[in-house]
Each structure stands twice: as C-alpha cells, then as structure tokens.
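Figure 2 data, in text form.
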Amino acid sequence: MPGNVCMSKDIDQHHIWHPYSVMHSELPIYEVASADGVRLTLADSRELIDGMSSWWCMIHGYNHPQMNAALEQQLKKMAHVMFGGLTHEPAKTLSQQLLDITPEPLEKIFFSDSGSVSVEVAMKMALQYWQARRQPQRQCFITLRGGYHGDTFAAMSVSDPDNGMHGLFQSILPKQIFVDRPRCRFGEPCTDDDIAPLEKALKEEQGIAALIMEPIVQGAGGMWFYSADYLKKVRALCDHYDVLLILDEIATGFGRSGKLFACEHAGISPDIMCIGKALTGGYMTLAATLTTASIASTIDQGKPGVFMHGPTFMASPLACAAASASIDLLLKSDWQSNIHRIEQQLERGLAPCRALDQVEEVRVLGAIGVVEMKRAVNMKSITEAFVEAGVWVRPFGKLVYLMPPYIIGDEDLQTLTNVLVETIKIQK
C-alpha cells in the first residue's frame, strides 16, 4: 500500500485544507451526508438548520426540484464546451435575463468562474479602458476601509489592508488608496462631513482608474450597512472627477438586501458591476462582470483590440442553466415580501441581544442579521454549541450573523434566532 494512503476517516484531518484553517486544527469539521431544503444532514444523522446559505449563495435551499431538473436537462445535452469561438443557448438565455434585471446602462457581460475572478476582470476592464483612452498613468484604485472583494491578488489589494484577512501579503500587493468607510448608517442622510474624505482623495490623488466598493453592505470585511445617500453622492463624485465606479454586488445581488441589487437603494448604476454567489442559487460556481457599451467599445478600439481575459470554464453551460433556473425561481416568487418577512423576524428574534453586555450592536437589513460582539468569539466553543443545538452558524471575528436561505419558514427562522441568542448569552 502506498505510504501516502490513509483511512478515509483520516483523509480530511491529515490531507485536506479548509478555508482559512490549519492542518490538524482543533476546530471541528462536520461531514455532511446530504442536504434538503434548509437542512444539512450530517454523517452521524444529526440535522442542522442552515443559517448561512452556504456562504450566502443557496437562496432557494438544497435539493430544489426545479434547480435539479434544469441541471439534469442540460446535462443530457452537454456539460461543458469552450466559449472561445463557440456559444450556446444557456449563455444566451442567461445573458438576456441579466440584461432584463440589472440597472441600465449595463449591457455587456463577461462570464467567469468565481466572485474573486469577476473582481479581477472588473479591475482589468478599468485598466484596459484607460489604456485605450491613452491615459496609461491611471493604474491605481480607490476603495473603502472595511471592504472585502476576494482572495486573489488584485482583489486582495482593494480589501481592507489593516483589519482584513490579507495583511500577510500587503508588502507585495499593488498599492491602492483607502479612505475611511462612511459612518452614516443605512436609513440616515449623508452629510458633507461623511463624504468629505472620499472627495478629498478623488480631488488630490493622481492616476485613479476606478473606485471599487460594495454597495450598501460591506460583507466579510465587517458586515457594515451604510447610507444609500452616501452611495448616491459617490456616483456623483465619480462622474465629476471622471473616475469609473465598480460595484461589487457578489454578496448583495439577487435580493439579499431587500432590493434585487443593493445599488437600487440609491437609485444609481455603476460603470462596472460584479455578481456571483447567489447567481446560480448556489448550485454551480459562476460569476459575471457587467459593463456599459461605451466602456466595452473603448476597450475594443484600443490596443490590442480585445479584452485580455479568458477563463477555461467561462460560461459553463451547466452553470448558466442553473443560473437561469435560479433567476426564474426568484422572479416568479413574491421575493420582496418574503425578504421583508425574514427581515422582520430577524429584527424581532435578534433584539434580545441588544441587552447583553458582551454585545456591541445588532444590525438587520433584508435577509441579513448581524450581532457584533465586543470581543472575537471562541470559534471552537461557539461552533460546537451551535451544532449541539441543531443549527449551522459560522461566525468570524466579532461577528455572529445569519443569512438564511430565502425559503426558510418562520418556525425554522425562529429556532435559528433563539439558538443564536441563547448561545451568545453564554459566550465570555
């Protein structure tokens, strides 16, 4: 028997890296045997109510019959074909759906494999755009502190440099321009003082290609909800200083914040937009970067005359079929009322946390509920407590949060919030 072969039960512990983890970690890893609706069934037969939507993407839940049928139907035709020089109906159908629901004047679509790559594509679009406009000195990006845009190199360079997850790489990442995130909260007006740091940087800094930011909700960088009025002023400043605006809607797209896309809270449209996660209802990895006809034609007219990117699995037919089915499911439902229902129940269910000494703040927006602790949680003890109580919640740092599937019922959602409150009560 080869020396690197071990028993199946040891494979995970000794050979598989999990996200942001170490080999032989004391953090528990739970094996999932199956999933259905909002429930994960572990290998030991325990069932957990999923409060994470598998990192925010499984909006229709698991094992959905219409999603399954769409994939089965496409699989009988073809699973994959290269997108260079070829096209297919799933990509065309999905593209039309995206054109119908995304803000004008976005009308050109570049498909990629993941959210991080869609950000890389967006940044390359911006750089190549300015090259084509004969302004090659525009090579840096401006962004907000507290943001998160992915784990690939360009995406890391515009994620929070101090409190984010990429401090180790700061010395070798491209140097970008960071301004403080807005303190004006969602639902509040944006004052001149709130927008002043960004306006000052745009006025003084040279060589800016684009401003990149998450609209309304900063996700993994801190789960911060900021004023829609601020975003509206951002759009005006980008227009005034002739800077492209890239909005990262990877976490917020497809209804999570209460609008189909979070930029709709401000009534604005970006020059370039990134989408992913819930795009396929969590069934397949797929992302897209959308831009305007003006930006696309400018890139086409510059050197080398083509946009310089091309993923192997670009516009995978299986993934496109899943995305089309997911969008159909969402739009044919009364998703706005459903998100409002989830929002109200999250607000009621998490409210008791506001009275706890160890809690800094409770924030709710759409189908997002966040409890910010005063200190980082003990990941081992809190994860074990959640699993023992029959729920799957995956905190990070000081943030304990819920992003449940949209199909979750009132009873299961109440169980999630009750368990979260009771578990936080015993955290030291």
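Caption note: DSSP finds 13 helices and 16 strands in the chain.
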